[in-house]
Structures are given as structure tokens and as C-alpha cells.
Amino acid sequence: MTIGEALAEGLQVTVVGLAIVFGVLVILMLVLMAFKAIFYKEPAKAAKALPAAQSKALPAAQKADENKAESADDGELVAVLTAAIAAAYSTSTYHLNIKSYRRVGNASPEWNKAGLEDVINSTY
Amino acid sequence: MLDAFSSFLGSTGIAALINNMMTAVSSGKNILEVIGTPLMIAIACLLLYLAIVKKFEPLLLLPIAFGVLLTNLPMFQNSSAILMHTEFFTDPQYMIDGHLDIQRIFAEGGLLDLLYLGVKLGIYPPLIFLGIGIMTDFGPLIANPKSILLGAAAQFGVFITFLGALAMGALIPSIGFGVNEAASIGIIGGADGPTAIYVTKTLAPALLPAIAIAAYSYMALIPVIQPPIMKLMTTKEERSIVMEQLRPVSRTERILFPIIVTIVVALIVPDAVALVGMLMLGNLIKESGVADRLAKTAQNGLMNTITIFLGLTVGATAKAETFLTPATLGIVLLGLIAFCFSTAGGLLLGKLMCKLTGGKVNPLIGSAGVSAVPMAARVSQQVGQKENPSNFLLMHAMGPNVAGVIGSAVAAGVFLAMFA
């Protein structure tokens, strides 16, 4: 087999092969799009509530986490904070942008802390 | 007494080693064949080092490396201690009309011969897919159907490498790469160990150890191979794109998805059903939520058992005479090309989708289309987060990532349908 023949045959297989791979996955994509149309109902309430939550979330995030510019290796902490705020306000991380954060001391009495821990442990 | 001692000495591995080397020298074989045994043992130790110290996919590389060691221990010909007879599976002399001589394997085969039947008969890779199916979450894919195309684009490398291997075979005829071998080498670009093994054991069994070792080593190296390509092919702005949150996916969708995929794939590429079918069965066992016990067994006990058998026996096919050849070097080179082009293929379509959606898709998730779950998705997340620390691409990248598994299994089915 010369290199020309080899490449000609290979190209045929490549075109047919890629077409089949794309074909199968395009069909699956259409199925999934149909899924969305059939099973997913846009929660109308959530859509309206989102901007409100967002406007609340932003100042809250800034208030709680003031000052102190983030350094390069803070990525993980920022990720956790964003996720926590998003969960607390039941919104998406998409709308949140942590500008800064600051550690605040926990001055509550020991009994309160113990009580809080009890509640957390009993729930989860 | 002395006789017994000397006959024992004559049966030791040392005697076998010296005897085999002398025979090779006297029959005028090349240097590689003379020092083949010690060289392979050194390679096995190197692989063990990579697995244990460098942690390259240790769950697989460790058994593979030990298989290489076991199969290359010096033995006399026809010794009953030989664990693996690769010739039973590849040499027509030991077969009946090109089929396995099962009687002979049962009668004369060693431990690894018997375990290797699971590879040769195509049992292990689908069972591993069963476990993978249970551990796979198709939610991100169902939520973002377009990302399934990225899993198809990342199969680009499979076919480019197929072409490359054909060209190499035509340029260097002695390397012996025909279409079957080229297809097996190309599928390395699917970045999916069981799929590569499943194709190779059918199309080019002699290349199995080299292809499996190349596939698993490069999968372990994904965090090294991908980021430079990703940075080269995307702009800073593209990398910092934040994607919209995925919609919630209902249980009904999660249950229907595996069933429909199995049917669709079977209707178009029946040869891919062994892999895709088991993958989807595993996923259905998990998502249905009614067979927790099966899920636990299949993703732990069963999968780990199979992993040991598969790794050990694939490694054991790496005998000096078939492994120490130019073909192995070619496979190592082509495997790297496969990974690079698969990454590039995914990124290119990612960029296109980014343009078409007006900047809503971060092209970095495209590189996750090369299966290698979940490492490739994690690489997308890390590269994205470097540009924008509060960017979370992981779940978006899981979509193309799991689509890549389906894509490479379909590509494997295409090759099997054409050449097997």
C-alpha cells in the first residue's frame, strides 16, 4: 500500500466514522432537547425572585466579607464562600461576585455554640 | 543427593535466564532479543515506580506493571510454571482455524492464561463499563444537550491518529500497521482504557499491551498534556467566560436517558452495544434508586475484581519478543498525537459554540470531551479558575466529559463494524 492509497482509504473511514459519531450524538442531543420541552417547566416564581435575591445577595456578601484583597491562592475559599452564599439565597453562583471577605470572630457564648452544633448534628 | 541438587539447580530461573540468553546469542539474534528478559523486568520496575511513587493511575498501572513482571520472569520453554502463554492467543499454530483452542488453554494454560480469557472474550471491559455507569452522573449532560456535541468533536483525535498510523504503516512497512492496527492505535485518542482494550483485543491483539499502557499512561498525564494546548488555543477572554447555571434535572429524565441511549446506539451502531449497553445499565441501576445493593456491588467489589484481572493480564501480554519492537515506539508517539488532537478537536468546537451563542459557552469545557472522567473535566475547571477565581466550570465540563465516553464507545463500534 503506498502512502497515497493508505491516506485515501483512511480519509474515507475518517469521514464516514466521524459522520456516524456525530450522527448518533446529534440524535441524542435532539432527544435531550425534547426532554427539556416535555419534562422541564420553567419555575416562573424562581425567575422573578432571582433578581431580588441577587440584589440582596450582593450587598450581603460585601458586608459580611469586607476589606482584605484576595491573594492568588484564595481561589478555593472564594469558591466555598460563593457556593455558600448562593445556597443561602437559593440563587446561582452565576450572579455572585465576591469582591472581598474578612474573617469575623465568633463571640457567641459557648452554650450557644454547643446548641447550634447539636442542631446541625441532629439534622444531617 | 548431588544429582538431586544439580537437577534442582538446572530448573531455577537463573539457569533458565542464562540458557535462554546463550541460545539467543548462538542463534545470532539481535541484541534486543538477547537482553529482552532483563530489559522487560527493568521496564516493569519503571512502571511500578510510576504507579507507586508518581501515582500514575495506580489502580490500573500497578497491576499492569506487575503483570509485565510476572510474564517476563525467566523460564525454560514448556515449563509448567509459565503463567502466561501469549502464543495461545495470537499464534495461528496454536489455534484451530483461527479460533482459540480452548481445550489447550484449559489443559496447559497458566493462571494468567485463564484470567486473560476474560479480556480475549470481551468480558472485562463491558463489566468495567457497568461500574463506570454507576459512578457517572449524566445530569449535567441532560441539562445542557449541546455539550454532547463536544464529546463527538473530541473523537477527532481518534480518526487523525488512525490516519497517522496508516501513513506510518505505509512509510515504514516493517512496522506492520494495517487498518486494524491503525484503528486500535487511533482509539487511544478516546482516552478510555476499557474501550481501547475492547477494540484492540479484537483487531490487533499483538499490540494490546503497548496500547493499554500508552492509553493509561497518557490518561494519567492529562493534567500535563492538556493545559498548554488549552491556553494556546483560547484567548484570555474566552477562558474567563462564566456559564449560566444548569437547570435542575428530574428523576424521570435521569431514568429515561440510559434506556433511550441504549436503544438509539443499538439501532445505529450495534457493535457499540456491549460497551454502551453496560454503561447505561449501570447508570440505570443507580438512577432508578431501587437496586442499591446491586449498585454497591457493581461499583465496588465487582469493578475492583475486574480491574485487578484486567490490569494483570493486559500487562502479562507484554512479552519481550512482542513488546520490544519499533511498533511500541510508534504507538507511544501516535498515542500522544491522539490525545493532543482530541483535546484540540473539543476546543475547536467549543470555540465555535462560543461564537454561535454570543459568548455563553466557555470553550475550555470542550477539552473535557476526551472522556478520561473526571480528570479532563477537572483540568477544565482548574484552567478556567486560573483566569477567574470565582468561575465554576466543573459541572459544565462534566457534560462533554461523559458525552466523550459515549462518543468513544460509538467510535469503537464504528471501527469494529468496519474492520472486525
Describe the structure.
- The complex is a heterodimer of chains A (124) and B (420).
- Chain A contains 4 helices and no strands.
- Chain A is mainly alpha-helical and 124 residues long.
- Helices cover 71% and strands 0% of the residues of chain B.
- The termini of chain B are far apart.
- The mean pLDDT of chain B is 91.
- At the A-B interface, α1 and α3 of A face α11, α12, α18 and α24 of B.
The total of beta strands of chain B comes to 0
Mean pLDDT score of chain A? 76
Query: What fraction of residues of chain B sit in β-strands?
Result: under 5%
End-to-end CA span of chain B: 57 Å
Low-pLDDT segments of chain B: none
Number of strands of chain A: 0
What percent of the residues of chain B sit in helical stretches (DSSP H or I)? over 70%
- Number of domains as seen in the coordinates of chain A: 2
Q: Kindly report the average pLDDT value of chain B.
A: 91
**How many alpha or pi helices of chain A?**
4
Q: Greatest interface and its residue counts? A: A-B, 45 and 52 residues
**Measured on Cα atoms, how large is the radius of gyration of chain A?**
26 Å
What integer value in Å does the Rg of chain B equal? 23 Å
Shape of chain A: elongated
Which structural category fits the helices and strands of chain B? mainly alpha
Low-pLDDT parts of chain A are 60-70
Oligomer: heterodimer
Helix content of chain A: 55-70%
Sheet/helix structural class of chain A:
mainly alpha
The sequence of SSEs of chain A as H and E is: HHHH
Largest sheet of chain A: none
Give structural attributes:
heterodimer; A: 124 residues; mainly alpha; 2 domains; 69% helix; 0% strand; B: 420 residues; 24 helices; globular
